[in-house]
Amino acid sequence: MTVLAGSGSRTDSVTTGDETVTRGKVAAMTRTDYADALAELARAQHRVATTGQLAAVGVPASAVRNLCAPGGRWQRVLPKVVVLGPGPLTADQRCRAALAYAGHPSAGAADPAAAADPADGGAVLTGAAALALHGVGRAPFEPVAGGRIVDVLVPRDRTVRTHTWVRVHHAAAIGGAHYAEGLPVAPLTRAIVDAVRASCDPLWLRAVLTEAVTERRVRLETLAEELAAESLAAKAGVPETLRDLRAQARGPVPEPLRALVRGSRVRPPLWRPVLRLDGGYLGAPDAYWPREGVVLAMAAAVPAAREGHERLARLGLRVLTVPPEALTTRPGQVAGTLREALDSGPYGPVDRIAVFPGAG
Question: Which residue segments constitute the domains of the chain, with CATH numbers given?
Answer without folding.
Answer: 2-86 (no CATH), 101-248 (no CATH), 255-356 (3.40.960)
